[in-house]
Design brief:
- Chains A, B: One of its GO terms (cellular component) is cytoplasm.
- Chains A, B: Pfam families: FA_synthesis (PF02504).
- Chain A has two domains: 151 residues, Isopropylmalate Dehydrogenase (3-Layer(aba) Sandwich); 188 residues, Isopropylmalate Dehydrogenase (3-Layer(aba) Sandwich).
- In chain A, 48% of the residues lie in helices and 16% in strands.
- An eleven-stranded mixed sheet of chain A has the order 3-2-1-4-11-10-5-6-9-7-8, sandwiched between helices.
- Chain A is globular.
- Chains A and B meet through helix 8, helix 9 and helix 10 of A and helix 8, helix 9 and helix 10 of B.
Chain lengths: 354, 354
């Protein structure tokens, strides 16, 4: 990489604003080339005192002042109507203008999706930027998408998710040939509704540069059976929240069980280093790319701490420096050709025959 | 109850057959009136030695010999074609013939659903008998349905699940007025796909004897936000398996973390009574009714132990002695009326207006 890497930052998003985003920049900068630059969008009056504590950053940062902020509970439609000139809006617009290669925000998800879609436009045919989750399991992290943006998905949308998820997993995790699975209620070809069966037939056709492994089930996620798990936004959102809820419940029960008597409490105290390790392993990364846009946008969690937001910046950097965009484009062209080839009746036939 | 309660038992199903089902009968009999009778279907040569160990049961049991058994990996279509005369078939047929008020089997789920549907027929308009799960949470168990039988569900099917799930929860858990929620990707009326929004509008109309609380999300299950959570069989199966997988993963990680060093192992040993309690609380009941049939059929887990299978027998007894059937029928009549009242365009309108 010879060219200077410029990342655009919405410094006002999330629960903590500059008190988290500025220390995060300092953390991220240490892990990136010294030539990296940050365009930081937000309220200069709030930002300057934070930057004063990180003088080493000065040469890498350009603050673009705005006092307009999108509230964390703003509806997407309102964010669109009134968001122009806000720190989030300006962060994304810098990518559109070619001033930065990627934008990072921990502002509200719906607003960020809507603004990113309006400014950058979609590069694929999905309705809204696709939400990605990293699902922790025994062997590492499975990339899961869509986890909530696109509620109604036909077979082509599911194939698009597979293409984007695979390219993202390679770009971010450095796996040369990620494996891909389609979430269903069983592993046989006849299982599931028409959309998943048709997507299965298209993915199995071998027309894409994908290591497609077929159907997987809900319990395959924690087993990391595949690197990339594809599902519609309705199912993905519900299964993710159901599993998160179960994880929290199990942790709470565990705490209660371990402090139910003096003896067990003493045991828990002795075991606490083990338990701490356990807690860390269960907490997945809190950064997620919005996939399907003409440009890189990474969403950090609203409650992100400095290290979380720094991780989101690093994710944005690796995505923008990877072949993600060209790989997706190549496979999308193949998808268009595959769909054109198989006229509507043939496509229906594929679903039934398989 | 003056009349004798007769339960029909498939004694050959599950991984262990009579060595589990007979001791289970002994356990169940202790918790039931002495007048209870069991019609036990299976291989007399395998059953007799088991019953010899439980002489107290003798007066309550009638063995109906058959040496035909449906294998645990039999496809439903094959079970239907070749199942006639098997222990599972005969157990269900005794309900149809009026010889027993309920049937219990730990045989294969697909086979039991197919045979039950063929013999007993559906009492409601769903495609297949509805599968129910009991979801453990902080405050108890949430009844979740459908968890895998009916993949494509329109709004009316979802309302039928609500009606049946609510009646089941009252009959089995003794809750006078169970609360009901519809699983979705958000709590606002505009969220989700058309089927859930229309089901929401029908349920909110107040035409049923239901305490309907609106949309819930995936993480509401472990919180027991409602007593009964309604979803289609595709989403339900995937969210259940995803949560089960997460639960197993968390337990495995916990065990690994607690035995990672001598100190933590010592701590885990001290804490073991707390940990045991924790494990028990996470294991939900392994019995599930097949809802929507003209008759009570309860499925026990294939790997059921004697207490699990005894619990399934008790569930069958409480369902058959409850007002489940009449309550479902009453609300189903109201549903038919509500759907007839709102002609197709009005129903569409409801989804949009709401």
């Amino acid at each position: 990489m010879n060219r200077t890497l410029v990342i655009s930052i919405d410094a006002m998003g999330g629960d903590h604003g500059p008190s988290v985003t500025v220390p995060a920049l300092a953390l991220a900068a240490k892990a990136m080339p010294a030539s990296t630059r940050f365009l930081v969008h937000g309220d200069a009056a709030a930002l300057d005192p934070e930057f004063a504590r990180h003088p080493a950053l000065k040469a890498q940062v350009e603050v673009r002042h705005t006092d307009k902020v999108i509230a964390s509970d703003e509806k997407p439609a309102v964010a669109l109507r009134r968001g122009k000139g806000s720190s989030m809006w300006n962060a994304v617009e810098a990518v559109k203008a070619g001033e930065a290669v990627a934008a990072v925000s921990s502002g509200n998800t719906g607003g960020l999706m809507a603004i990113s879609k309006l400014i950058l436009r979609m590069s694929v045919d999905v309705d809204r930027p696709c939400l990605v989750a990293s699902w922790p399991g025994a062997k590492g992290l499975t990339t899961v998408l869509d986890v909530g943006a696109n509620i109604d998905c036909d077979a082509e949308r599911l194939v698009e998710f597979a293409i984007m998820g695979e390219a993202f997993h390679r770009a971010f995790h450095g796996v040369a040939k990620p494996t891909v699975g389609l979430v269903n209620v069983g592993s046989e070809d006849v299982k599931g509704h028409e959309e998943v069966r048709l997507a299965h037939a298209i993915l199995r056709s071998g027309k894409f540069d994908l290591d497609y492994r077929g159907f997987i089930e809900g319990d395959d996620l924690s087993k990391n059976t595949v690197d990339v798990a594809v599902t519609d936004g309705f199912t993905g959102n519900i299964m993710l929240k159901a599993a998160e809820g179960t994880g929290r419940y199990v942790e709470a029960e565990l705490r209660a069980a371990l402090t139910s008597s003096l003896i067990t409490t003493a045991g828990a105290l002795l075991a606490r280093s083990g338990l701490r390790k356990f807690g860390q392993k269960l907490n997945p990364p809190r950064a997620a790319p919005l996939l399907g846009l003409n440009g890189v946008v990474v969403k950090s969690h609203g409650g992100a701490k400095a290290q979380d937001f720094a991780d989101a910046i690093l994710m944005a950097a690796s995505l923008s420096q990877s072949d993600f965009a060209t790989e997706v484009e190549k496979n999308m062209t193949r998808l268009t050709a595959a769909v054109a080839e198989s006229s509507a009746p043939a496509a229906d036939g594929a679903a039934t025959v398989d």
